[in-house]
Design goal:
The complex is a heterodimer of chains A (190) and B (218).
Chain A lengths: L2 H17 L3 H22 L5 H17 L10 H25 L26 H10 L2 H12 L4 H8 L3 H19 L5
Helix pairs in contact in A: 1-2, 2-3, 2-4, 3-4, 5-8, 6-8
Chain B lengths: L2 H10 L10 H23 L6 H6 L1 H24 L13 H22 L13 H20 L6 H20 L8 H21 L1 H4 L3 H4 L1
Classes of the chains: A mainly alpha (190), B mainly alpha (218).
Chain lengths: 190, 218
């Protein structure tokens, strides 16, 4: 009997035991398969970075785990395993190509967004007293909504439970309140 | 995650699993689940004016029914084989043969109608009466097929699902053909074969949403 046939039979026995719930046999099988899987991945995706190749090996292990009920111990083990390997390697290559198509290579990563608003680090915070007075000047419903949702940072659900108002009413109130505050702080009446 | 830690995690979570039976056994299980529904719908919906004796003496009808049965069997066998890693991929081609015979038999029927009746023999009309029994016949085999395919490995999801849909469509046609004994072949060609093709195409399109590696989607 050749060495490869012997090895295949050993794997088949271990897998049969793993299918029956033998955790030790399963761990042994997976440990024995690792060098084989690494070699197969290197052969099929020679240009892959070591970390990406290892991710692919782990992906194959997870697929093997998911598909283990489809193995028939009366059939050779390695063709079963290699069909999964080919499938996962091809899938990995497909995902890599589709990810690369959407990537833009830049020399330096930007530290912030290109929009003007997030880049106002030297801008003034505004007058907190004016804000307090503006909030106080709001109608009751709008002030309550601003306090709960913006100042106390409650979720809509929490604020609705706390105030007894409906979520829709809170949304309307907070929107109107914010519009009124912007106008007041910009020097206009609410 | 470290690979050794992953192995340990997988081994710790390994519970006994029930092995999938061989594809031909699964084909028989699927057939056993589907045929009672098929028989029940035919029995319930069959119009009273259909003469069973005329049906079993109609050579064309018998050939088409036999070819449809073989198409359903081979397509389901191929579908179940396609979710077993390492299974011989040549099995995927087997349903093409009965499918081609079915197509040829319908084509020959159209030709005969044309020779006998001219363009009148090729008239198409909508036949909406067929739709409810078609849906009734198709539901259980479709659900059974999807559930059974999802227990295997999604190696070629689109092909697996398309073959499954072909098996369901062939079985449903086998039932529906009973209502069309003596009908013009062009009706069967357009509605039944067309329906089967559309169903298989749509199923193939949705294949990756139905069959996928669950760990990759998690």
């Amino acid at each position: 009997m050749s060495e490869s046939t012997e090895r295949d039979q050993r794997f088949a026995l271990l897998m049969r035991a793993a299918q029956a719930g033998d955790r030790e046999a399963y761990a042994r099988l997976l440990h024995e398969l690792i060098p084989l899987l690494r070699r197969a991945v290197r052969r099929q995706r020679a240009l892959l970075k070591p970390q990406d190749a290892e991710d692919l090996v782990q992906n194959i292990l997870l697929s093997l785990h998911e598909a283990r009920r489809s193995y028939d111990p009366t059939r050779p083990f390695l063709p079963w395993l290699m069909a999964i390997v080919r499938n996962r390697v091809a899938d990995g290559a497909r995902r890599y190509i589709s990810r690369s198509a959407h990537e833009v290579v830049v020399d330096r990563l930007p530290e912030t967004f290109s929009d003007a608003d997030p880049n106002t680090i030297d801008g003034p915070y505004g007058d907190p007293e004016a804000l307090r007075l503006a909030v106080k000047a709001l109608p009751d419903g709008q002030r309550r909504a601003i306090e709960l949702l913006k100042l106390r940072e409650m979720s809509l659900k929490e604020a609705a439970a706390h105030s007894g108002a409906s979520i829709a009413a809170l949304k309307v109130s907070v929107h109107r309140g914010m519009t009124a505050l912007r106008r007041m702080l910009a020097g206009k009446d609410p | 995650m470290d690979t050794n830690a992953l192995i340990q995690e997988l081994a710790d979570s390994a519970v006994p699993v029930r092995r999938l039976p061989a594809p031909w056994v699964r084909m028989l299980i699927w057939l056993a689940l589907s045929v009672p529904i098929l028989a029940a719908v035919i029995w319930l919906v069959m119009p009273s004016d259909i003469n069973p004796v005329a049906a079993i003496t109609d050579r064309r009808f018998l050939i088409e029914e036999a070819v449809l049965l073989v198409t359903a069997l081979t397509a389901s066998l191929a579908a179940f084989g396609s979710v077993v890693p390492g299974y011989d991929r040549r099995i995927l081609l087997i349903p093409l043969l009965p499918f081609a015979v079915w197509l040829a038999s319908l084509g020959e029927g159209c030709w005969r109608n044309w020779v006998a009746l001219g363009t009148n023999g090729l008239t198409l009309r909508p036949d909406w009466d067929c739709l409810p029994p078609a849906i009734l016949i198709g539901i259980v085999p479709s659900i059974a097929m999807v559930v059974m395919l999802r227990r295997g490995a999604p190696l070629i999801p689109r092909t697996s699902i398309a073959l499954g849909a072909l098996a369901v469509a062939a079985l449903a046609n086998l039932g529906l053909r009973v209502f069309h004994v003596g009908d013009a072949s062009v009706m069967v060609l357009f509605w039944h074969l067309g329906g089967a093709a559309v169903l298989a195409g749509l199923a193939a399109f949705a294949g990756r949403r139905v069959l996928y590696w669950r760990h990759a989607a998690a």
